[in-house]
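Question thread 4412

I'm putting together a teaching handout and wanted feedback from people who do this every day. The idea is simple: show students a protein as raw sequence, then show them the structure tokens that encode its fold, then repeat with a second protein so they can compare. Below is the first pair exactly as I plan to print it.
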Amino acid sequence: MIRRIAGFLAFATLTSFWIPFLGESLCADLDARIPKNAQSKSKAADAVPTARIANTLQKLNKNLVLESTRGEKDIALFQKAAPAVVFVLAGTDSVGSGAIISADGKVITNWHVVGANLRVIVVLKPKDSAELKKELAFSATVEKVDQIADLALLRITSPPRSLSFLTLGTASSLSIGQDVHAIGHPQGEVWTYTRGLISQIRANYEWKTESGLAHHANVIQTQTPINPGNSGGPLLDDGAKLIGINSFKAGGEGLNYAVSVDAIGEFLAREGNRQAAQSQSQTTRGPRCTEGYDTMRRGWNDIIGCYQDSVSPPPDVWFVFRTRDKNPIYIAMDSDTSGKVGKIDLIRKNVGSDWKIAEAYVDADCDGTVDVIEKYIDGERVSSRLPPPNLRVISLAKEINTALNNGRIPYRELRVCQ
């Protein structure tokens, strides 16, 4: 808990958050709302502005080539599988592919495609024309991630009816020399089909992506041509079943790799997220602040949700304001560093005017009573003391408790310890 508390004077810069396609600013000009000494630079983007979607789709229109002259077998496979392959836009500079795996809009892709983003855009394949329209783009939430196997599970918000999806194959059906097929968006050439052979099946294979994290999983080595933009897209067998997620390539010709279907099955069955080991500089980064709520109906966001250890909703850190242009009156957070968010058991308050000195009120057992008060100067704990008798967490976090109870913060699983 001490690491979790002490790390919180390195707040991330709060950036404007946009609801995809609606063009509404959710947290406008939040930088001015947090004291400068409580900010640190962050390049993580947690949504895709409408202008970026439009510009990207416009560029892709001229590249889109629908199915034409292929072998009869290849044409049938492409026509069956391609509608279940999506184009993924994440943040400001990441694009990739994804595979729809359920009628309710679950999408499997690579973790390195979505990165730190908690919301992404998925674009569905057009049926009869080469024009990618805005209506084909849908918001999706990142449900869970596995950094070790480089996998992420998305869920499309309000997916269309009769959504095409792929079924999972089995690892036991894979053989060296077997024909395999890939569909993705290499270099922005959307819904590109390639085919090849399984060169080898490698258990517990280790590799690194540009993030610098070490990954390992069972992988399928193929000479099926893939390039940047294919990441997260499906590797298919002759029956159009998903047997892998195309993930990376090595130096040399024909050294392409997909995370195998057995690793995908383990990821889908596993609860929660799996994190790769991170450097100290990564673990001490500030929170990503992406959600703003006008809980008092005053025309500005008085409570702002941020993500520190949590990688999927709900946020585990909340800034609470009483006036529009002032510093937060307190910060409410979940002290658990596992990423599983369900409680608010720590309240941090400013002592003075600039957050250089702060006090943390800690409810160690979440029984609703503060157990210890810790004092911090410039992020370093300098002392601790016992609280007054029966000091309740709910008395320190009235605003956020009220907002949760009346549904103005839409997370029923989150509560203030009481």
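The second pair follows. I'd like the answer to focus on this one:
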Amino acid sequence: MSTNNHASDQGKWTALFLCFVATVAIFIPYVGYSTQIVTMMADLNMTYTMVGTLASASAVAGGVVLPFAGMLVDRWGAKKITVLGLFISAIGQVAFAYVPTYDAMLLSRIFLGAGIPLLFIGPYTLALRWFEQSGKTGVAMGAMLATDGIGTLLALYAYSHVLNAYGWRDGSALGAIALVVTMFVAIFFLKEPKHFSEPDSQPKMQSVLRDFITALTHRNVLVASVFLVGVWGSYAVAIYWVPTILMEENGWSESDAGLIGALYPLVGMICAVSFGLLSDRLGRRKPLMLISGIGMTIAFFGCAFALANKNYTLLAAMLPISGLFAYGGIPLAYCLAADSVGIKLAATANGIIMSVGFLLGGVVYPIILGMVKDSTGHYTDGFIAASISLIALNIIAVIFAREHVAEKPHSAFA
């Protein structure tokens, strides 16, 4: 192996680690407050619908920003977008900590929503770019999806102790400090791969729009987008509502309830990495995506059954099983799209996929579940509806995907 190849190989793993750290940090403002929902409801006189709207506000803003973020990554570079996302999120987190009213808090969540998605699209695309030439994009995406598990565990368990010790307002401000530190780490140490560090001349707007339409209308991008709607929707339910259910209806502590919510993506890391690795070796994404969709749907029906029978132990057990399968499919969805449109349009495709997932999954599911709770007094009907939706979004839709791996990939162990 030449010295240049060795340096490149070492550089991609360093870049992957830094992308991982930057993405983990964003879960503090994204979901960190969810273990304090009961306290915040009392402080700000919020209804369940208002809580659902608060959870959805960032997803709305993120969904609107994401398609443009993908195009900006293609034009400005993934590192700059990553740093910008950390900067916006730090400011928004400080505002969230000290606003006096619900309306002002809602605005702060919308502002945060403009920064949070940049911390998905930037690092994810940077990881794809570093690993594309080695044929290990499935491994890279699997590793990046592990940030959901580590980040959610950090935000819902470890960070909950900070919020309990300092209160949700001062504790939220301390979270902003962690974002600032991460921002400076990204500024000084995160790098683009050499073949992207000096981009070609800026594309014309006509070319940018043409590329966007090309990605938007591609069959596999549409399939991946629909798949992410189900995953993000079930994730939002797991993170925002299940801990609240366990605290309100079964008397769990904030940290214990937060830990159960965190298990959804944390356990999912197993399949995220293993499915990504296996799909690289097989050269196929679709069969494993189907297994992912079937498994998460069955497990979510199990959650609905547990709620209907007030079996909270079963609910706590079924949630991580659903996450185990759900996260196995996410890296495959991104890779399926990247395989199809090419690495040059990967950021644009990722922006579209994440945007649809945020807007439909991250927004609709929390709001509807909150409305169901306010109108019926229980959560069961909302969980049943969510479970049924997964049949269409994560099983039937995948059947329409087309494999697009042009050649047998390099060994994922190389």
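Top answer:
Good format. For the second protein you could add a caption like this: The domain at 3-399 is CATH 1.20.1250.20 (Growth Hormone; Chain: A;). Confidence is low (pLDDT under 50) at residues 407-414.
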